Structures are given as structure tokens and as C-alpha cells.
Amino acid sequence: MPQKNRTVKGVLGGLLGLVGLSAIAGVLVTATVTPALAVAGAAGSQALSLFENLPSYLKPDAPMEPSTFYAIGTDGKPVKMASFFDQNRTQVDFNQIAPVMYDAILSSEDKGFYEHGGVNIGATTKALIDNLQGTSSRGASTVSQQYVKNVLVQQCEQGVLPGAEDYDDKIAQCWKDATEATGSDGIERKLQEMRYAIQIEKDYSKNEILLGYLNIASFGGTVYGIEAAANYYFNTTAAKLNVTQAATLAGIVQNPNSYRIDRKGGTGADEDGTAINGEEDGYSRALKRRNYVLYRMLDDGKITQAQYDEAHETPIQPAINPPAQGCAAAGDNAYFCQYVKTVVLSDPAFGDTPQERTKALQRDGLQIYTSLDLRIQNPAVEAMRARVPANLDDQNLGGAGVTVEPSSGRVMAMTQNTTFRETPTEDKAISSIIYASNMAHGGSNGFQVGSTYKIFTLIDWLEQGHSVNEVVNGRNRLFKDMSCGDSPVYFGDTKIGNFGNNAGYTATPMRFTRDSLNSGFLAMAEELDLCEINAVADRMGVTLANGGKTTDQNVPYDVLGSKNISPLAMAGAYATVANKGVYCTPRAIDKIVDQDGQELPLPDSSCTQVITPEVAATTAYALQGVMQRGGTGSRANTGDGTPLIGKTGSHELWSTMMIESSTKATTAVWVGRSKGTETIYRSYYDGIRMQDARYYIGRDMQRAANQALGGGDQFPPPDQNLTRRVVKDLPSVVGMSIEEATNTLKDAGFSVTEGSPVDSDLAAGLVAEQNPGAGQVAGGTTVTISPSNGQGSTVPDVAGLELNEAVDALRSAGFSNVSLHGSCSKPDAKAKSTSPDGGSAANKSATVTIKCA
Q: Is the C-alpha dihedral spanning 829, 833, 839, 845 positive or negative?
């Protein structure tokens, strides 16, 4: 059993070892070493003091360890998601290793470990002489020396950064330099190893050295440390190793790549080419070495004869448990894992160069706690799986969903319909591309986001002082008044299409937003600046998925979402509205802890006020209508009472989106073709149309977020000035044709209805009346226009005329039926008025009665 503390004999051994080795170095130099050193260019006097002049201080660095990503479990505790490593190693404490493992190592490698001071003088002297004579390049190292050797190898390997030229050769050279140097180099290496071992013995307890050795030692391939070895070779832990397993691992560590037992085809071959140390020969090399270890343990009294006999008769029986590394091991969370990996490999927080960042990921043993929340992620995965198959029709059908926290930018869920694999494949159910993110973070070239882009026109509309209740002519037509700064922007000679071939209508941005009317938003854009609309998107963190800026190109179709953007970027924009105009950059990492348990700085992130709270609140006010009954996004409403904003979007027939948000969570869902433009509008899965899948996925994801985060608050009330009723000038259209009058009124932003024909002296069909009449009226007023029936005339004003003059005037106006009121029977009576009144229109066949004073 290992001892808890160093013995007095061990301490004295360290001091005597230093003196003894000085003498031995002198003897070896004068007897046999000096010629070899002389050949190497060393003078005799230098050789005599070689040992004392060697560096004596070695500080073991933290060994290479896997870095691990964690998600937030459904109980709020960290859940391991994936690991990344050059060397598969899990460091353990002293009491996490079975005592029989210590016994196996010490019996076979260093029986006198607790007695010597770090060096076995006699054995080392023999090894030095053998090295000089060329009969051996190994041997006689104590556990302390082997620990030193492994530390030196590890330090050398740490200096070879991943991606370096001739990386594999340089890594191999580290081991060769530390273990197989011959001649004078070998002597100097051995002496240096001894010097360091003695110093290590003074700085650390015996148990610390023994534990350090077992945590750092190689067990073949990428397996390092006793915990990883126990798990890999026997699917158990170091604490549960039995006699047979412990002896096998103690044997492997003596020559890892020759004695490893994970290669069924063997680790070598004899002269005839027959495999050695494989399944067929019962892992002969490892078996022979294991049995030697068992013999040494029996001889040392560490095991009984019965234990020896049982173990000796037991064949080598590996239970290989390959360590899973990389994001494929994250299963349903693989695409989020890959997103985090791209952050680590690109962000300066993890190193200044790509090689340094790769080293941080694969060697530095970082514990990276991510923002992925399984309370939201698990339902998101189920929602996607239930509605968008990995490969429906072999036409690159894709689906992606992401949920972010508006107040911080934390990415809490990310799901995709395909299965993750880093290696390329023709299988369309498998993809390495993250549909939810941009190209810089493992994403695609983005997708046309459709009408979800209209939010930027709406925001620019409000920032220019317009009201959401201002009436706009949204009738479909050629929009020829687009501009970017002082430059006109050509739209084309083709009308844009509205959903369902809607002809458009005159209404307010509130209604345009609820109905997602294309022609309505183009009409709004005519009163704005196209470049400024795209600049709003840029300000709200939206970039093209390929890294370009939304302002790099400005065309009218931008208003309707023709640019290729990632769902994550669009989620961030809507989260800005939900966060009172504050945009937070996406953040996927909550905490980073190094091997020493110290927290490290996080990648830079920021939250910035990019639109005013008033504009944000009024935008949210308009977007709430989308999620309510009659709105285009109502099918995605969670129905749990949480206040929601949202927007639908589709581009042509192959790309659809649904974005919705509470004040605490924003969800963006995309379903469409990841490649090509094949329609999805004729595709069904499990009874659901593919163009409708976005609603139900968004609903389920947002509902899960609402439940996990406690719903959401009421959105702030809209700004009164930005919701005001706008007064407009109503023109007179009397005398115009019905068509001309209708166009004039609609162009001015009014709705029009046609009344029944009225008596008028205007030609039949011309507008004879309008209600209300010309002047200042509230925006949105409906104007009723009534055409002339062509049978009327205006009753002349005959007041003050002689009766005969009044009758002649009426008959001249076309009224043949004229009568006199009883008041006109008096002598010298004069006309006072008529019925119908003078100046009014009346049918010419109507009787006009003259009244007198």
C-alpha cells in the first residue's frame, strides 16, 4: 500500500543520492564517459562538474486535458455535452484510484519508491554504462524519474501547437528525445532526469509524485492517465480496478504502444508477418507483461497466491469504450455545440492565433459552461423532429430554430432537422452546416428571410416621425419613387405580388403589419430612404450570412426580405425590440474555468441602445397584432397568456420564417430549401404542410421558453405621437369621372365607396357629390362619391324676382313643372324662395314651387 508521507530514510536518500551521484558521475567520467563526451566536444574538467551544473528545478505544468462543454440541465445543474482532446485524460485525486493499482505500478516499476530519494543509484549506473556501450537506451528509472520524463515530454508537446508544420513528426520527436537518446546525449538526458527527480522529491510528497505519474502517463494512442485508461480499456473507473485489470494497465504503461490492447489486429508482426499482440494470440505481449506484474506483486506480498493464480489464468479481456470527442457526441445538441466550438476557435479570448485557440480547446482542460438550456432545447428538438424530417424528398429540405434571451443575447436553444457530422457526405439527412448561424460560425450562406425583414421598414417609418395609424395608399402598382439618398432606385416594370393575389388597399402600417401586405410596405418605403432602411438592420446587428453588410447593396426588393441572413441574426433584431431598443450581441458561453478552478475572461459581448425605447415600444405595439386573431402569425401563438410580438416571412415558394418573442425570449424558425429553389408548398409531412411547419415549431419552442422563464411581461405602451391619427387634405373630386375620382382619392390615402346616382346637371356618370366634402379630415376617412344620373339640374336662386321673371328662370333651367305657393296670391308679390331650395340639384321633372314674401 502507498504511504501517506515520505519516510526519514527517503529524505536522507535524496541527500545521499545527490552526493552519491556526484561521485558516480566523476567515476563514470574518468573511467568511460570522458571519451564519449570528448567526442561531443566536452572537456574533462567540464565533464567532472556536469551533474552539478545541470538545472535542478523543474516545475510540472498542468498536463494536457480535454476541454469540456456543458449545457444547463433541466434541474439547473451542468450537463456534459462534449469533450475535445489531443490526449484523453481525466485527472483524479489520490483516493480515486484503487490501492491495487498503486501496488501493481510500484511492484513492477519501482519497488523501493518509498525508500529512495528519487534515484536508484545502482540501477541507474548500470543504465548509464549500457547506454554508453550501446547495449540499451532505457532502463532503471524510478517512478520519480518516469514522472520527470513524462513532464518533460508533456512540456515539449505543449510547445508544438496544433496545426504546426510536421506536427506529428515533432510530437513523436518529443518522446524520442526524452526516452531514446543514445551516447553522450543519452547520458546527459539521464543525468538531467536524475537531477530533476531529486528536486521533485524535495518539493512534493511521495503520494503526490505517484499520483502525478499515474495522471500523466501514456497508456497508448491518445489515452493518458489512469482514469481514462480504466474507462477506455475496461469500461470502468480507476477506483474500481481489480487485480487483473490493474496488472494489465501497469504492464501497458511500460511500453504503451506495444502493449496496448485495443487493436484486434495486433501491435506488431513477426518475421512471417503474423500479427502479434492481437485478438488471435490473446494479446501475447500485454499478457506476458501483465503476468510479470502479477509475479512481482505476489513476490512483494501485495496479492495472495490465490489472487495470483486466478488472475494469471484469466485471459486478456478488453472492454473497449472509445472516448467520444467532438460535437457529434453531443447528439441532439450537436449544432449548438459546433457553434460554441467555432466561437472558441475564432475568439481572441482563447488565444491570439488559430493554433493557440486550438490548443486551448484540445489541451488546456477548460470547463466551458454554455448558455444552452435543456428546458428549452429538449422541447425544441422534439418540435423540429415532429414536423421537419431529416430528408423528406431528397431535395435539401432544411429546418432550423433558435431561441435567444433579449436582455443578454444568450443563445438558449438551437435545433436543426438534420443529423450532425463533420465529414462530408452525400446523404441529405446529414449535414455539418449550422443552418441557424452565419458562415463565420459554421453556418450556411443564409436564407432569404422574406417579410420578417419588414420590421426595418416599420422602424425607419417611426424614426422619421410617421405614425402607425397614418393612412397610406397600399394598392398594388408600380412603385417608381424609391430612392437612396438623392439617387432614385429603379424598381422595374412589374408589379410585386401580394399573398393570394391581393390587389392591395389603402390602410395604415398597423394593418399592413398584421396582414404582411407587400404593396403596403413598398408604399411606406416610397416615403422613406431605402439605404436608411437597410442601415436600420445593420444597426440592429443584422449582417448577411456571408459576413457582408446589409448596406452593401440597396434594391427595392430588400424591403420584402430578399437578402440572405441567418435565423440567429434575425432573432437578435426582434430581441432588440423586445428589449426596449437595446441590441445584445449573441452569447453562447456563460463561464470558463481553467484546470486550477479559476474563472477566465469571457469572449467580448455587449448590449447597446440602437433604437429609442419609444420606437421599440411602438414597433412592438404593431407586431403584437401579427400574433393575435386575424394576424398572419396567430397560428404560432403559444396560447399561454404570454404577451407576444411576431412576424411571418416567406420568400417565393422555398423559404419560410416565423419569429416571435416575449420580453424574456425570442424564437426564430426557418423551414425551406437549404439548396435550390424547389417549392415546399406541395410538400406534406405527417399531415402538415411544409410551409406551415414554422408556426408549430415556433409555437412549441416559444411555449417551452415561456414556461422555463416564467412567461413574459407586458410590452411598454406605444408612444402617443407615433400612434396619432394623422389629418390629411381631402381633395374635391366633383365633376370627375368615377374612375378618376377613385384614383385621386386613393392616391391621396383615402378609402372610397360609391353611392347611388343623384340628380345633377352634370353629365351622367360624373361625380356629383362627395361625402365628406373637400378640406381637412382625419387620415383613413372613407369618402363616398355619388355619380350624376344626368336627369337633374340646379334650381336657380329666384329670390327678389318678379313672379313672371322667377317662372321664366326656372323654366330656362329645365324645370317645366312650376307652381306658385299661396303666399304669392297678394298683389305685387315677389319671389322669396323655392322648394327645392335654390342652388340645390333636382330632377328636371320635379315640381318646383315658388314662395313669396
A: negative
Q: Cα angle at 649 between 648 and 652, to 5 degrees?
A: 150
- What is the C-alpha to C-alpha distance for residues 348 and 316, in angstroms, rounded to an integer? 47
Cβ atoms 769, 734 nearer than 8 A: yes
Q: Mark out the alpha helices in 322-425 (DSSP H runs).
A: 334-346, 354-363, 374-387
Q: Quote the CA–CA distance of 307 and 752 in Å, as a whole number.
A: 101
E strands within 358-432? 367-373, 397-404, 411-416, 419-420, 430-431
Q: What is the pLDDT of residue 12?
A: 37
Q: Give the DSSP letter of residue 718.
A: P
- Report yes or no: 559 and 533 within 8 Å, Cβ to Cβ: yes
Can you tell me the distance from the alpha carbon of 569 to that of 337, in angstroms, rounded to the nearest whole number? 18
- Which pLDDT band, with edges at 50, 70 and 90, does 475 fall under? confident
Q: Is the dihedral of CA 421, 422, 423, 429 positive or negative?
A: positive
Q: Element (H or E) spanning 578, and its range?
A: helix 567-578
Radius of gyration of the chain (CA): 43
Q: Which residues pair with 671 in a beta bridge?
A: 399, 656
Beta strand 483-484 with 472-473: parallel, antiparallel or unpaired?
unpaired
Going by C-alpha positions, the residue among 378, 463, 352, 489 that lies closest to residue 79 is 378
What is the sign of the dihedral through the CA atoms of 713, 719, 722 and 726? positive
Q: How far apart are CA 517 and CA 528, in angstroms?
A: 17
List the grid coordinates of 206.
511521495
Cα separation of 495 and 490, whole Å?
Answer: 13
Q: What is the pLDDT of residue 750?
A: 80
> Which three cell numbers mark 88?
484523453
CA atoms within 13 A on the CB side of 843: 6
- Contact between 140 and 124 under an 8 Å Cβ cutoff? The reply is yes
User: Which set of grid coordinates corresponds to residue 649?
Assistant: 416571412
User: Which residue, among 45, 48, 16, has the nearest Cα to 116 in the 3D structure?
Assistant: 16
Confidence label for 27 from pLDDT (cuts 50, 70 and 90):
very low
267, 285 Cβ separation under 8 angstroms:
yes
User: How far does CA 708 lie from the centroid of its chain?
Assistant: 19
Distance from C-alpha of 467 to C-alpha of 723, rounded to nearest angstrom: 5
User: Residue written as cell 503526490?
Assistant: 208
**Contact partners, residue 559, CB within 8 Å, separation at least 6:** 453, 454, 457, 521, 522, 525, 530, 533
> Which has the higher per-residue pLDDT, 175 or 382?
382
Side-chain-side CA neighbours of 820 within 13 Å: the count stands at 17
3-class DSSP assignment, residue 732: coil
Among residues 853, 242, 349, 394, the alpha carbon closest in space to that of 601 is found at 349
Q: How far apart are CA 81 and CA 314, in angstroms?
A: 37
CA–CA separation, 85 and 66 (whole Å): 4
Q: What DSSP line would sit under 75-142, residue for residue?
A: TSSEEEEEEE-SSB-----GGGS-HHHHHHHHHHH-TTTTTSSS--HHHHHHHHHHHHHTS-S-----
Rounded CA separation 410/417 (Å):
22
- Burial state string for 304-317 with b = 16 or more CB within 10 A and e = fewer than 16: eeebbeebeebebe
Band (pLDDT 50/70/90 cuts) for residue 141 is: confident
DSSP letter, residue 543 = B
CA 818 distance to own-chain centroid = 87
> Residue 290 burial (CB < 10 Å; 0-12/13-18/19+)?
buried
Report the greatest alpha carbon distance in the chain: 167
Q: Please, what is the Cα angle at 22 between 18 and 23, to 5 degrees? A: 120
What global pTM score does this model have?
Answer: 0.80
